Amino acid sequence: MMEREFVCIICPNGCRIKVEYEGINIKSIKGDECPKGKDYVKNEITNPLRVFTGSVLVGNGDFSLASVKTSVPIPKKYLKKIGEITRQLKVESPIKIGQVLASNLLDNNIDLIATRKIIEKNL
Amino acid sequence: MPEKEVIIIGGGAAGLAAAVACKQKGIEDILIIERGDYLGGILQQCIHDGFGLEKFHTSLAGPEYAQRYIDQVKEKEIPFLLNSMVVNLTPQKEVVVINYKGLQHYRAKVIILAMGCRERTRGAINIPGARASGIYTAGVAQELINLKNYMVGEKIVILGSGDIGLIMARRLSLEGVEVIMVAEKLPYSSGLPRNINQCLYDFDIPLLLSHTVVDIEGNGRLSGVTIAQLGKRGGIIPGSKRKITCDTLLLSVGLIPENELSREAGIVLDNITGGPQVDERGQTSVSGIFTCGNVLQVHDIVDNVSLEAEYIVEGVVEYLEGKLNKEGEINVELGKGLRYVVPQRLNRIKDTIFSFRVNQPGEKEVLVFEDGKKVIKKKFLRRVNPAEMIRVKLSSLELEGIKTLKVKLV
Fold this sequence. Notes:
The complex is a heterodimer.
Chain A lengths: L1 E6 L8 E7 L2 E6 L4 H12 L2 E2 L2 E7 L5 E6 L3 E2 L3 H10 L1 E3 L7 E6 L4 E5 L9
Parallel strand pairs in A: 5-8
Antiparallel strand pairs in A: 1-2, 2-3, 4-7, 5-6, 6-10, 9-10
Chain B lengths: L2 E7 L3 H12 L5 E4 L15 E3 L8 E2 H14 L4 E2 L3 E5 L4 E6 L2 E12 L3 E3 L2 H4 L9 E3 H9 L8 E5 L3 H12 L3 E7 L8 H8 L6 E3 L1 E7 L6 E6 L12 E4 L2 E4 L3 E3 L2 H5 L24 E3 L10 H19 L9 E5 L3 E5 L2 E2 L5 E7 L3 E10 L2 E11 L5 E5 L1 H4 L5 E5 L1
Parallel strand pairs in B: 1-2, 1-8, 2-5, 8-19, 10-17, 11-12, 11-17, 12-13, 20-27
Antiparallel strand pairs in B: 3-4, 6-7, 7-8, 9-18, 14-15, 15-16, 20-22, 21-23, 23-26, 24-25, 24-27
């Protein structure tokens, strides 16, 4: 039996959640203040998920970088690989928030969406 | 001299939310004056997510959060000036603005100070050693990397465990840069626990508590720093010094509310928060000058900045309607365990949100508001942390009839 304390990262409350588990079987969860905390620790034990955030180069925009995030949380182990991919990408303005800038990355249905609105540069 | 009803100094999170709230409450004649070349302030460089959980019930990146307000400002046709710096503010609520057109003078019935804060620098913490290049504050590095597409270095040491430093540790790791460690002078982190988890531990970056940088080396570019462990009283533990080879040092050692204009206008500041002393709706010691956001007190969550801006606008509206009549003055007294309280005084009995920070981390504390010996309100706090602002609302019913007000931990 393993016992571990997690700090939930879902919201600023940062609940300290105590979990007893064996392998991937959870015996007890204590200290979570909402259901999101339970889901978070379940994922942490089986397959930790994170939203990737980063930036990609933009041609001809009022900002030179578009900030991006993955459309859903992705397995933690992919974070650095997605970082490598974003360093190679270049997109053209204009860009809307929510626009998909790259899709099916790592052949794993990972989409990158824009989190910054970018308009064409006034020349 | 053009006259406005409300002039808002600063177009970041606080200024935008204040502008939108003013317009929603029927104030027509508003002007936002922003120093930078875009609205949104620091949010534009905070490209990580986690913003908006309270305000919009979803997790947004900083630019997304900012855009929600920028869209409203544009929809509501609220005028704003960019690349325009307020260089003077008087108690008569006259402002002098400098921009590409030259000097402009305005007068307003109400001024809302929303200038935010700036970072403490190497000079503020007196790190000795070489004056090498490669030393950045974390926020400047964030701006360079996230907005200007300029990488700051290859092997990085971060001093200070403030949230921006933690966020930058993750950001740099994701950009393929090596973050060697985060050193923190205090025996506990000054960042949010969730950020230590997802920004450091996720990337196997060590957090060295009770450690600081005591020397900087480098001829031209920084080539290394010396770190040392600190004892209980803050002195260097003999024999604990070691040299770390790196090319960059990031400083995340605190934020200072940017109150040069407030001082010029004769506004009384709080020595601890670094922001103006205010009443129950963010009015400073100068009548008609209100304030909100990081220039008032450094927040850890932007949602609270927006909420604070909306909240003080209630006072702005009453002021403009001539209904804001001072009923008396009760100074909020600070007791054991607390570093500061905002507001510092009550001029009227109204539902009031009090914000605090504690002196040190603790568990199972009770926050008590009292009038002399009479306890007005008690709040149980499962755990407290200086990194986490505590906000407690007292209703006008609870505050009714008080002669004094003291708040403390027991």
